[in-house]
Specification:
The chain is built from ten helices and nine strands. It is of the alpha/beta class. The structure holds pantoate. Pantoate binds next to strand 2 and helix 6.
Length: 280
Amino acid sequence: MNTFDTVADLRAQVKQWRSDGLRVGFVPTMGNLHDGHFALVDLARQHADRVVASIFVNPTQFGPNEDYALYPRTPDGDITGLAGHGCDALLLPSVAEMYPFGTAGCVQMHVPGITDILCGRHRPGHFNGVATVVARLFNMVQPDVAVFGRKDYQQLQVVRYMASEMAFAVEVIPAPTLREPSGLAMSSRNRYLDASERTTADTIYRALQAMRDARRQGDPPGRIEGVGERMLLDAGFVVDYVEVLRADLSRPREGSEPGLIGFIAARLGRTRLIDNLDLQ
Ligand code: PAF
């Protein structure tokens, strides 16, 4: 695997692959990679001849009181893991390479509507930062396909909408959520949890399963949300949201509607965790 810290060098490599008629897949990450990320690389490989990953802890998607400075940075282990999964190239840019005119007055992407709810309501500006960096990365890498995890379902929808509206020639492919044996969704932020928080964190998946049971019994959306919220509060979480929405993130009228998804964001100590589950 070749590692590139400038966009120009990566582009030269991608140009070569294209002239050889090869399809390019892309997996953007913020590093501190785990099996969930490596599954994205494996999925990209199924859709492309060459796979590019990026590691960039993007400052514009963190709020002023969030964990940008603390976010775990583990480049050596990440590089070994990516190479072991057959990744062909890694873009490891500096902040100056990604934002040559600085982050303060940079051109930004804003996806309206779906960024006002769920995490968008609790992390103002977060999805502007995500859409902005993903648009830059798409321009830099120019992939045929890009893989995003369903665990960050709202992010997946924001990226899909942005890519289709801005006519990026990239197919956005969703990847299933990978879970620990306990059901906890894999996330770089799980590293922040101490041993007892880690046990408590499993309640998120159990709450989503209880919400699925409530939906199967025909409960209305509000009651389904109440089931999940009660379990989280009893376990000691500070709950940001528990919501039942349609796949397009609109509000359902009935719990009996097909295709509903349960969404949770909740905080345990200083760690904010998110997850979602298809309630079918
Ligand atoms: O999901 C992430 O790791 C980040 O939000 C992404 C898509 C790499 C953009 O910084």
